[in-house]
Amino acid sequence: MVRVAYLGPRGTFSEDALRAAVGDQEVEAIPAATVYDAIVALREGEADRALVPFENSIEGAVTATLDTLAFDADGLTLIGEYDLPIRHCLIAREQIPLERIEVVLSHPQASAQCARFIRENLPQAEVRAAASTAEAVRTVAESDQPWAALGAESAARLYGAAVLRQGVEDEPDNITRFVWVAREGTRPSGSGPWRTSLVFSELGEDHPGALVEALQEFSDREVNLTRIESRPLRRGLGRYQFFLDIEGASGEQPLASAIDALRSKAETVRVLGSWPVAAPPGVPG
After folding, report:
1. Which ranges constitute the DSSP H helices of the chain?
2. pTM above 0.85, yes or no
3. Residue 167: which of 54, 58, 85 has the closest Cα?
């Protein structure tokens, strides 16, 4: 049975994504305390795959995932993706009026996705961070304080809590893209258009237009970039690495030649993975 690490504990949206992504396939789901722990469990051989949140339609990239892939994922590769619609619920131990709630607890991504709801409906409440939405729900379910959590309806059922409001996300079209992580050498499965994700840093000559010139290698070959994100390189202020999502497979033209040309302009270029966007239910690879 395939072992899959995910952001736990039980009741997170990551678990919902895992169950939806694998369909009827039986897997051993391994909850991890953080995204970092889920990816490291794979790297250390404690899991066969990891499914981790990558990007949200409201809040953008999940920086913990980007940083872990950049700095702590040697020998690993991305081999697939799954999009999960996210519907946040306001959850408490029992039914209580919203004006009595003193603390709203959740993962920072969830709190940000519900920021307008909190401002308009819970102005008196203090917003606190939790390691995951499920941990937040579990905490309020066990507390005798007038606290509430933002999380999945499945977590409320799991921990015996009460749903006060459903659909409290600020935008109804709220989707999180999850990515499958595997060991290098694992072949992706699926069909249809491909997507490639890479990270590069340290352009050879730091001058006006250096980044534009690097990206020009893709536009000159009519290769479409679907996302660009910068993150600190952790080597002092003003030094960044750049994450790209690109249409196409990394080993096929014209993308392959564009990546080769980028290597001549950047000190480091690492392809994080290349996979078909459409895949049947089940663990890819």
Report:
1. 13-22, 35-43, 63-71, 108-113, 115-121, 133-142, 153-159, 210-219, 255-263
2. yes
3. 85
Helix 35-43 vs helix 63-71: crossing angle, to nearest 10 = 30
The predicted pLDDT at position 99 comes to: 96
Residue among 132, 121, 125 at smallest CA distance from 170? 121
Q: What type of residue sits at position 226?
A: T
Residues 56, 64 contacting (CB under 8 angstroms) = no
Q: Which residues make Cβ contacts (< 8 Å) with residue 80, sequence separation at least 6?
A: 179, 180, 188, 189, 190, 275, 276, 279, 284, 285
Q: How far apart are CA 68 and CA 204, in angstroms?
A: 24
d(Cα 189, Cα 5) in Å, to the nearest integer?
19
The residues with which 232 forms a beta bridge, in sequence order, are 240
Query: CB-based burial of residue 253 (10 Å sphere; 0-12 exposed, 13-18 middle, 19+ buried)?
Result: exposed
CA nearest to 6, candidates 22, 137, 88, 23: 22
Across the 285 residues of the chain, what is the mean pLDDT of every consecutive 10-residue run? 94 94 96 95 97 92 94 96 96 97 95 96 97 93 96 95 96 94 94 94 76 94 96 86 97 97 94 93 92
- 99, 137, 140, 155, 246 from 93: Cα distances, Å: 15, 9, 6, 12, 44
Return the residue matching tokens 């949200």: 56
DSSP letter, residue 45: T
CA distance linking residue 21 with residue 239, whole number of Å: 37
pLDDT for residue 22: 96
Q: Which 8-state DSSP code applies to residue 124?
A: T
